[in-house]
Every structure is written in C-alpha cells, then in structure tokens.
Design a protein that fits this description.
globular, mainly alpha, 11 helices, 70% helix
C-alpha cells in the first residue's frame, strides 16, 4: 500500500526546524535551559490536557493539545540528540520497526510472525500476541508480569494496569458478581476499621476499597481514571453554578446556608439533564 506523505513530511520538517531554532544559540533562553529531567512534568501535564480535550470531544482543542504532546516528546528527543545520546531519526525508525514487529497480522514478514498462534481478529487476541512478541522476540522478560507496569503511573492508572496484567494470567473473577461481592466485603471492613478508630487501619482498608472499585469498574468495562475525571468535572460544573447563584442571591456560602446551596445544586443537576 502506497501513501502520499508529502504534506505531513513538509509540516514535520517545518516543526523540527522551529524547535531546533529554539534550542540553538541565540534561541529561547527557557528552551535552552531545559533538560530531559526538567521536562518530565511538562510531558505529564500536557498528556492530561490532551486527554481532557479528547474527552470534551472538541477536535480543535484536541488538535492544539495533541500538538503540545508531540512538541514535548520531540523537544526531549532533540535534547538527547544534542547531547550525543541518540538521533531523532533513530527514535522514529525504531518506533516504526517496533510497530511492524508487533503487528505481524498486518506485516506478515516481520520478526513477530513467529508468535502468531491464531488469527488476530479481535482486540484481545492482538494484545495477547503483542505481549508474546515483547517477551519471546524482544526478550523483555521480567520476574513478575507486574514489573512491566511503570511505578510512576498515577495510583488509579497503576492499579488498573497491574490488575489487567494479572487478568492475562487468569487471575480474575469468572463474572461481575464476584467483584461486586468483594466491594461489599471491603466496604464492611472499612467501617469496622473506622469503628476501631485506628487511622492507619482505616487508610489501609480505604485503599483496599479503592483498589477493588477499580477492579469492579474494569469488569464493567469502565476506566476508573476516566470515570473519576468525569465526576470531578461534574462536581466543578455544579459547584461553580452554586457559587454563582449564591452570589447573585446575596447569600453567604456557609454551613448555615447549606439548604439553599443544596437547592441550587439540584437546580444545576436539572439543567444538565434538560440540556443533554
């Protein structure tokens, strides 16, 4: 299959020229001062902002934020190139080769073809094949399958990822009811700890409850991190509506006026339902 990449290559060449200019002598002092280590926070923050834009289903915003993700990834790669560690071209070539190797169902002559056990006609089969290629072709073997998950992931994401790894080894409930019952069990254990008044035990049991809720969400086909982000956004919308209405009514936001705040909160909910 032949593709015309002319416009994309032209745009990337222009982009690469811009970031090289920023890092060159006489360029931007801030960009010149950065290192791969100082850019770690920016990569994380821009990734979250891109996720927000995608969640909003706003293509123009997504275009901007995805561009920022690309900027940060390529800027850090340029730093490594300038340090003599590796070339940007090497990064892209190795990435392309990895994609070819891990998709033998699309590129049958790739190194990964030795791990084709069945027709990879579903997403789950593709992922299973992907893992076999990583382990048996690329030699990425770990003492534990959980060691392949970056420990710097945010807690909810890390929890989901290690649970998914365990599932691939058959460690999972046979149906949703098993996970649902475990949620109830952990809920009861949390309240037993609360009754004891031992804060350390409460923290432990609260963590267990969060962990199983992430697992139960997975069983239901829900990503706990995305669900939490959605709940945060909903709270933000409704609370700021309450703030606005209380200010308009000249009512102070205190515990004494909670009933009025609840009234505006319900009003915000009703508006959201009617505008869906």
């Amino acid at each position: 299959m032949k593709f015309d990449n002319t416009e994309e290559l032209k745009a990337f060449d222009h982009f690469l020229t811009v970031i090289k200019t920023l890092r060159a002598p006489g360029g931007c002092p801030w960009d010149i001062a950065q290192t791969p280590l100082t850019m770690r926070k920016d990569i994380i923050e821009e990734s979250y902002e891109a996720v927000d834009a995608i969640t909003e289903e706003n293509p123009d915003h997504a275009c901007e934020e995805l561009g920022d993700v690309v900027l940060n990834a390529n800027m850090v790669s340029l730093m490594y190139q300038q340090n003599g560690d590796f070339e940007i071209a090497r990064m892209y070539n190795e990435l392309a080769e990895k994609l070819i190797r891990r998709h033998p169902h699309v590129f049958p002559q790739s190194e990964g073809s030795s791990q084709v056990k069945e027709n990879a006609d579903t997403a789950d089969k593709v992922l299973a094949q992907w893992d076999r290629i990583k382990e048996n072709v690329e030699g990425r073997k770990e003492e534990s399958v959980l060691d392949t998950v970056p420990k710097s992931f945010p807690p909810l994401l890390y929890s989901l990822k290690i649970q998914k790894k365990a599932v691939k080894k058959g460690f999972d409930w046979r149906d949703n009811e098993g996970a649902k019952e475990k949620v109830k069990e952990e809920w009861d254990e949390l309240h037993e700890a609360v009754a004891e008044g031992d804060l350390d035990h409460v923290e432990e049991e609260f963590g267990d409850l969060l962990f199983i809720l992430v697992n139960y969400a997975r069983k239901l086909g829900v990503d706990a991190s995305l669900a939490m982000n959605r709940a945060n956004k909903k709270f933000y919308r409704r609370f700021t509506y309450v703030e606005k209405k209380m200010k308009e009514a000249g009512i102070e936001m205190t515990q004494d006026n909670l009933e009025k705040m609840d009234e505006f909160w319900d009003e915000a909910k009703k508006i959201e339902r009617e505008t869906k």
